Amino acid sequence: MTRQEADIIAQAGAAKAALTQKAPMRYLTRAMLAGCYIFIGSLVSCLSAAWFYADHTAVAKLLGALTFSAALILIVSLSRIHSFFSITIRSI
């Protein structure tokens, strides 16, 4: 990890800390939504892996990993979409 990457991570952490002070309900809502996405992703991952596990073990493991990764991607992409729309609405 380079110094520049460490600075970016530190700035993101400082922004989250500022958000907890500035708008604690928004931070709590985002954290709860992230938890819901992880729960849904892990549920779908377990169900899809269990569905294929008896016949195709390798496919089941791959499908389980892909569906859980989709939940993580959902968290990142939806937080960016929310930020985009909140900036757009404020500028109107």
Layout of secondary structure:
Blueprint: H1 3-22, H2 24-53, H3 57-91
Helix pairs in contact: 1-2, 2-3
Beta-strand residue percentage: under 5%
Oligomeric state of shown chains = single chain
User: Helices and strands: which structural class?
Assistant: mainly alpha
Number of helices: 3
Helix content: over 70%
Low-confidence stretches at least 5 residues in length (pLDDT < 50)? none
**Rg on CA atoms, Å:** 18 Å
| Element-by-element helix/strand order | HHH
Question: Overall pLDDT, averaged?
Answer: 80
Counting DSSP E segments of at least 2 residues, the number of strands comes to 0
Distance between the termini: 39 Å
Main sheet record: none
Q: Describe the global form.
A: elongated
Throw out a few tags for this protein.
about 90 residues, mainly alpha, 3 helices, about 0% strand
Descriptive report:
The chain contains three helices and no strands. With 92 residues, the protein is mainly alpha-helical. The radius of gyration is 18 Å and the shape is elongated. The termini are far apart.
